[in-house]
Design goal:
Elements lengths: L4 H5 L4 E4 L5 H9 L3 E4 L6 H7 L5 E4 L7 H6 L5 E4 L9 H6 L3 E3 L6 H16 L2 H9 L17 E5 L3 H12 L3 E5 L11 E2 L3 H7 L2 E4 L13 H6 L4 E5 L8 H9 L3 E6 L23 E3 L8 H21 L20 E8 L4 H11 L4 E9 L2 E8 L5 H8 L4 E6 L2
Parallel strand pairs: 1-2, 1-3, 3-4, 4-5, 6-7, 6-9, 7-8, 9-10, 10-11, 11-12
Antiparallel strand pairs: 13-15, 13-16, 14-15
Helix pairs in contact: 2-12, 6-8
This protein binds nicotinamide-adenine-dinucleotide.
């Protein structure tokens, strides 16, 4: 039976979910015993600071900013769920320093990006956008010239992480031959062939698609030289990050006819909100598909994000599990009955574990189970003890000089 949050703590457990998070998140947390308040929009700093006292779990998407000064006022806050991929909107360091765990959903929209990339590869290879435009202009251009099957064509994937490797599997199922380049040593899926450099991919591929991450070193990764090296008549896709590609160079190679088409979902500067004007040198080019950073935006991905992040918040609050947290040491602690669980976050210096166990031994407490994990400056110990745990024991653990935060969680 799942533990009930209120029964565990003996008090009210409150969660605040902002920015129209998928209703599955509310359902999951309510069923686990939280009183859940929701809001459709984001909150500014002052209002957020006002709403957080008494709230243990906060859910946001990309617009609400959780700064150090907000965290300073949020004494009851235990965890923040970023119901999206990015976590730049949260001061992760300040959160960790206060023992506030942050979770996100790094994999929930992987499949959505893969499907959009595949749809675009097929559409561009068949020149569907050109045919479609002509039909709407009243022109019946029945011709096979420049239209190809994707079966047997060579797909070059640059960045073979979550998205790149899943695209590799699905593209092979369509009969494409996959070549990939990743700066890290990655296991090839299926019959995909690893290339030793970006240039090797460009030399062989009929379609080149970028799925690298957003590290600063990837700025300008793909420019004049790389487009020039692509095979004549090949197709280019970028669904990774806007700053990775030189759009002036891409325009030149489309206009010259060296490239047969392109699909771009991400831009160096993007409008801030829905409905705002979009400017780009790529507008109006033939066989170029432009989409407003929607690679990961599907209802399925939103639903998966809602469920995934809410479950992470619940498991952290109820069991101390920090698996996939972006700012805590990673520790997978599962539900256990018949013991009291203490979660101790501390500065990672020698002797802390001995100090914790000395406090427990002095209180004549038997340790039934104990797990430790560290990450940089932080250490995290989850200890299951037999019998009674009074407030005095928690206070003694809090008094250890290295302690960041102690939570009695069951
Ligand atoms: N368009 C969208 O809506 C959307 C949605 C989700 C993710 N993304 C973006 O897609 C990209 C990939 O996401 P992911 O989850 O697969 O990331 P990931 O971290 O799992 O994979 C990125 C891979 O790129 C490799 N890499 C980094 N720099 C490289 C370089 N210069 N050359 C070769 N390989 C390099 C890394 O080693 C890693 O294997 C990210 O930039 C992410 O922000 C876009």
């Amino acid at each position: 039976m799942p533990q009930d949050a209120a029964a565990v703590t003996g008090g009210r457990r409150r969660a605040l979910l902002l920015e129209n998070i998928h209703p599955d998140a509310r359902t999951l947390l309510s069923e686990a015993g939280w009183e859940v308040e929701t809001a459709t929009g984001a909150l500014g700093e002052a209002e957020l600071a006002q709403r957080l006292p008494g709230v243990q779990l906060l859910g946001i998407r990309s617009t609400t900013h959780v700064s150090e000064s907000v965290l300073e006022t949020a004494r009851d806050l235990e965890a923040i769920g970023a119901f999206c991929i990015g976590t730049n909107q949260i001061d992760l360091f300040a959160a960790a320093a206060r023992g506030v765990a942050v979770f996100n959903a790094p994999y929930s929209n992987t499949r959505s990006v893969v499907e959009l990339a595949l749809a675009e590869i097929i559409a561009l290879t068949r020149r569907l956008t050109v045919k479609d435009r002509l039909m709407h202009d009243g022109v019946w251009d029945k011709s096979a010239v420049g239209a190809h099957e994707v079966r047997g064509r060579r797909l070059g994937i640059v960045g073979y992480g979550n998205i790149g490797s899943q695209l590799s599997v699905v593209a092979e199922a369509l009969g494409m031959s996959v070549f990939f380049y990743d700066s890290a040593d990655k296991l090839a899926m299926g019959n995909a062939r690893r290339c030793g450099s970006l240039g090797e991919v460009l030399d062989v591929a009929d379609v080149v698609t970028l799925h690298v991450d957003g590290r600063a070193g990837n700025s300008g990764l793909f420019g004049e030289e790389e487009f020039a090296r692509m095979r004549p008549g090949s197709i280019f896709l970028n669904l990774s990050r806007g700053f990775v590609v030189d759009h002036d160079a891409l325009r030149r190679h489309i206009v010259s006819g060296h490239l047969a088409g392109a699909a771009v979902d991400v831009f160096p500067t993007e409008p801030k909100g829905r409905g705002e004007a979009f400017e780009s040198q790529l507008r109006g080019l033939p066989n170029v598909i432009l989409t407003p950073h929607v690679g990961g935006s599907t209802e399925e991905a939103q639903e998966d994000i809602g469920r995934f992040v809410a479950a992470k918040l619940r498991d952290y609050a109820l069991h101390g599990s920090t698996t996939l947290s972006v700012n805590m040491p990673s520790l997978a602690s599962e539900e256990r009955t018949g013991t009291v669980r203490l979660a101790h976050l501390h500065h990672n210096v020698p002797g802390v574990l001995a100090g914790i166990n000395r406090v427990l031994a002095d209180a004549a407490v038997n340790i039934e189970g104990q797990q430790l994990s560290t990450r940089g400056d932080l250490g995290y110990v989850v200890t299951d003890i037999a019998g009674h745990c009074d407030g005095e024991l928690v206070r003694r653990l809090e008094a250890l000089p290295e302690t960041v935060r102690v939570r009695r969680i069951s």
